[in-house]
Write a structure and sequence with these properties.
Blueprint (H helix, E strand, L loop, with lengths): L11 H9 L3 H33 L5 H45 L3 H5 L3 H43 L1 H48 L1 H6 L3 H54 L4 H42 L22 E8 L9 E8 L3 E6 L6 H8 L7 E6 L2 E2 L5 H6 L1 E4 L8 E2 H6 L7 H10 L3 H6 L7 E2 L8 H13 L5 E5 L7 H14 L4 E5 L11 E6 L2 E6 L1 H7 L1 H15 L1
Parallel strand pairs: 3-10, 3-11, 6-9, 9-10
Antiparallel strand pairs: 1-2, 1-4, 4-5, 7-8, 11-12
Helix pairs in contact: 1-9, 2-3, 2-5, 2-9, 3-5, 5-6, 5-9, 6-8, 6-9, 8-9, 13-15, 17-18
The structure holds adenosine-5'-diphosphate and magnesium ion.
Magnesium ion (MG) binds next to helix 10.
Keywords: ATP-binding, Membrane, Nucleotide-binding, Transmembrane, Transmembrane helix
InterPro entries: AAA+_ATPase, ABC1_TM_dom, ABC1_TM_sf, ABC_transporter-like_ATP-bd, ABC_transporter-like_CS, P-loop_NTPase, Type_1_exporter
Subcellular location: Cell membrane
Length: 584
């Protein structure tokens, strides 16, 4: 499901004002400078009229010339300052939107992430926000200053000659009618163009994330077509928007030419009849010329707004995705270091309303301390148990308690700070090995890091890497093997000094020697911490204090290895096949 399918919110202009509000005074300052620029420009025709007047009466023109040069220079200086202030403010609006979007995306509920394309979300932060720049300067300011300048110019023109003003207004009204037909097309094309950029981001993310598989499958041509198709769609829609924008801009330009010619004709006739003098006609024609700029900025404001409102919509859609609450005051006192006790009580859960239930009433209790193992066929719902404990999702019914308190009562960050979680296929993030470990606990000192490195049996790897813990790993550096990645993830989780340690198939890729060593480590940790492990290989859990056998979203049996081998046929079968394989 695309997030574009979300319900619609407030109109784009209101959203825009929300983004702009923190910068309103800078914007007003910049706009005032633009207005002053316009005003100095507007005075030129009046001075020109005096100049012509002086000339025709054989008077000295020095004063008028000096005034004109001063105006021209002031016009240039104010114009430069104004456009700098406006551009700077617009960039601040973009910055604000990027900051709030990135903070928001980090707080997204996992459910929201499950249903979105990360590449598309990325495009909303990077690409859509840039459009806010134009919307702010060109639309908001353009409409404000252009509109004011337009009105002021028209008023001045009315003083110069009301009849010629009437002629001008008639032409403008005609152009306005044409524009109302053109503008909606720009909005639609703009939205489609931005959506296509989102699709492209999504495809890129998909392909680059699995480039090895794409290459190994010889799927490049197919993926290339998909990427090109998205790029071309963005091109098509942008060209369409450009076509309508050009039409709008030229309608305004054409209207001004028509106004100029009409004013020249009507004004010429009026000069001939002596209704006005030639200086008045020249001044009026100059005004028509000066009308061009505000009219064009009003038209640009409207067209930009239509294109930019698409980006605003896309930004707002992302900001409406369900998110976790921002960290608030803690409802509960800070957890101590004591190991946690956990209980599932008749938990029913499905990942989405249109998906089947994954947990059909899961019940088990885990006392503080000791190791509890979860075993069962893949798809049984073991990983889901851990996801629910981390509150990536909330159960549909039933309760989960930590230390006797409902998980929903814990402040999320406090809950998660109690837990060390090694997810199935835990990734190594790009950055140094040390960064990867400190992700779990930024405050850990060097001794502590050295200790978990030894505990997780990473010391040989660290010694071998060219820059030890400082070596870049992950995307931008040394790639680690599956088993090395797993040990990094375990070290990261241990560094959190968790009260509850969740290991989801965390040693599945280790060699026998390392696995046996880590089994001892985990048994050691379990003396002071509550440890939950999901293990595919039963050999790793035979010594667990209790084993929870899960199948198809239900708990079949709970007991020790010895009890279950006789009490539970599924477990007995798993044990038999695996130990046979191991022995063979
Ligand atoms: P296990 O860890 O025991 O192999 P999981 O808990 O990962 O099983 O998955 C249980 C079921 O839930 C599977 O059928 C799986 O397809 C489904 N499932 C897991 N994660 C998601 C998800 N994010 N969205 C939808 N379905 C999911
Ligand atoms: Mg799993």
């Amino acid at each position: 499901m695309s997030i574009a399918a979300q319900q619609s919110g407030p109109p784009a202009w209101r959203v825009l004002l929300g983004h702009v509000r923190p910068h309103r005074w800078a914007l007003v300052g910049g706009a005032s400078l633009s207005l002053l620029t316009g005003a100095t420009g507007l005075m030129l025709p009046l001075v020109a009229r005096d100049l012509i007047d002086d000339l025709s009466h054989d008077r000295a023109v020095t004063g008028a010339l000096v005034l004109m040069s001063a105006l021209v220079m002031a016009n240039a200086a104010l114009g430069a300052l104004g456009s700098y202030v406006l551009r700077r403010t617009a960039e601040s609006v973009v910055l604000g939107a990027r900051r709030s979007l990135s903070s928001y995306l980090l707080r997204l509920r996992i459910t929201a992430v499950d249903r979105s394309e990360p590449g598309d979300l990325m495009a909303r932060v990077t690409s859509d926000t840039t459009l806010l720049r134009e919307v702010t300067t060109d639309s908001l300011v353009g409409l404000g200053t252009g509109g004011l300048t337009l009105v002021a110019t028209l008023v001045l023109m009315g003083f110069v000659d009301p009849v010629l003003l009437g002629v001008t207004l008639a032409v403008i009204a005609g152009a306005g009618t044409v524009l109302t037909l053109i503008v909606p097309h720009i909005g639609r094309a703009g939205r489609r163009a931005q959506d296509a950029v989102g699709v492209m981001g999504a495809s890129l993310e998909r392909v680059l994330g699995a480039l090895r598989t794409v290459k190994a499958s010889g799927a490049e041509p197919r993926e290339e077509r998909a990427l090109h198709e998205a790029a071309e769609e963005s091109w098509r829609q942008s060209v369409r928007a450009a076509k309508w924008s050009a039409a709008a801009g030229n309608t305004a330009g054409l209207a001004m030419q028509v106004a100029f010619i009409t004013v020249l004709a009507v004004g010429g006739a009026r000069v001939a009849t002596g209704a006005i003098d030639i200086g008045t006609l020249v001044a009026f024609l100059l005004f028509v010329f000066y009308l061009m700029m505000p009219i064009q900025s009003v038209v640009a404001a409207i067209t930009r707004y239509r294109a930019g409102s698409a980006a605003l919509d896309r930004i707002q859609e992302a900001l409406r995705l369900p998110a976790e609450p921002a960290a608030g005051p803690a409802a509960l006192p800070a957890p101590g270091a004591a190991p946690a006790a956990l209980a599932f009580e008749d938990v029913r859960f499905r990942y989405a309303d249109d998906l089947p239930y994954v947990h059909h009433g899961v019940t088990f209790t885990v006392p503080a301390r000791g190791m509890t193992a979860f075993v069962g066929p893949s798809g049984a719902g073991k990983t889901t148990v851990f996801s629910l404990i981390e509150r990536f999702y909330d159960p549909d019914s039933g309760t989960i308690t930590l230390d006797g308190r409902d998980l929903a009562d814990w402040e999320l960050s406090r809950l998660r700070s109690s837990i060390g979680y090694v997810e199935q296929d835990a990734p190594v993030l790009s950055g140094s090995l040390r960064d990867n470990l400190l992700l779990g606990n930024r405050e850990a000192d060097d001794d502590e890091v050295a200790r978990v490195v030894r505990t997780a049996r990473l010391d040989a790897l660290v010694a071998r890497l060219p820059e030890g813990l400082g070596t870049l790993v992950g995307h931008r550096g040394t790639k680690l093997s599956g088993g090395e990645r797993q040990r990094v993830a375990i070290a990261r989780a241990l560094l959190r000094r968790p009260r509850l340690l969740l290991l989801d198939e965390a040693t599945s890729q280790l060699d026998a020697v390392n696995e046996a060593a880590l089994r001892d480590t985990v048994a050691d940790v379990a003396r002071t911490t509550t440890v939950l492990v999901v293990a595919h290989r039963l050999s790793t859990v035979t010594t667990a204090d209790r084993i929870v056998v899960m199948d198809a979203g239900r708990v079949r049996a709970v007991g020790t290895h010895r009890e279950l081998v006789t009490a539970d046929p599924l477990y007995a079968e798993l044990a038999a096949t695996q130990f046979l394989t191991a022995a063979g």
